[in-house]
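FORM 7B: Structural annotation worksheet

SECTION A. Query
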Amino acid sequence: MFRGDRYFLKSTNSGETWSENIINIMFPGIKQGMFYSTTFGAFSPGPFITTNGGNSWFLNPPPTMGSYDIQCIYIQNDSIIFLNGIDVDILDGSVDPVIYKSTNKGNNWTEVDRGGGANNYADIIFINDNTGFECRFTIKKTTDSGNTWFAFSQKMRQRVEFSQVFSDTMYLSSADGYVAKSVNLGANWVEYHTGVNDHLNDIFFLNNQTGFAVGHQGGIVKTTNGGVNWVVQNSGTTKRLNEIWFINNDTGFIAGDSGLLLVTYNGGVTSLIQNSQSIPVHFTLDQNYPNPFNPSTKIKFDIPRSSFVKLTVHDILGREAAKLVNEDLSAGSYEYEFDGTGLNSGVYFYRIEAGEYMETRRMVLLK
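SECTION B. Predicted structure
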């Protein structure tokens, strides 16, 4: 993960802990980056490129007319990188959107597209070695590995980021709280409003039906029916959220301003609610209800002071079956609705850890 104040954060245990390395760069801060593998990655401005997992970085900008503002870095494979941004001519002040391509890990750059209006380019995605798309107001397409680009679909509301592509289905985050969807590989697009009015900075779909988008003012929205309907989720912050990524169906990360990192271990399910604003006197963990249960049950607990809380479920052998809560919580009474759909019938134990307080209770899942 890249942080805007010249830091590179790295985790090797699914985000449980992070190592922090200062990147000695001359620019004000890190804007955007991508890793193709555990060793090969790049970030802007610059671009700065690493081939050894972030231990060292080299700077090699493309040959521009003046200053080049990189809006997107896309690493296609273990050799090819695309830069997508705007070239500002320092002599006449003209602004041109430009796409550059490197076939040797950023050591040399070739201009493959220029023009189409100021700030026209934003994100790039490839669906195979030859076919790719770029977006902003006009969708452009390449069918020759990014060597040439042509306008492909109609001008629309400002587009920001592509999600993953599923067969012929594509998604784009947009301005003003909209998400655009195409079911014919970008030829036509339909817009859906997500229920927030924020600029949606990033989008991620687990499959062609379930996806998330994040934006300004801490906005998180989720769909489970292919973008037709969206549910606004409680992020717990009003900071700008910039990037979202899942490593599996349950574990996902959101990076925000000022080094903010949000993590979910339950697929983004909003299951934890604070029942009241009154401050409890003691730490408590109540017996779940109902018990036995099938497939869901409610777990209530009290936190008399702000604490980092872990609430986990373990099987009869002590193995962790689910991680329900793993975050800082303010003082209050909480209720978590646990769904055991993916577990087998049997005896389970749920355990809370909050500061020095620890308690475990028994529950039974009957199917």
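SECTION C. Observations
The domain at 272-365 is CATH 2.60.40.1930 (Immunoglobulin-like). DSSP finds no helices and 34 strands in the chain.

SECTION D. Sign-off
Analyst initials: ____
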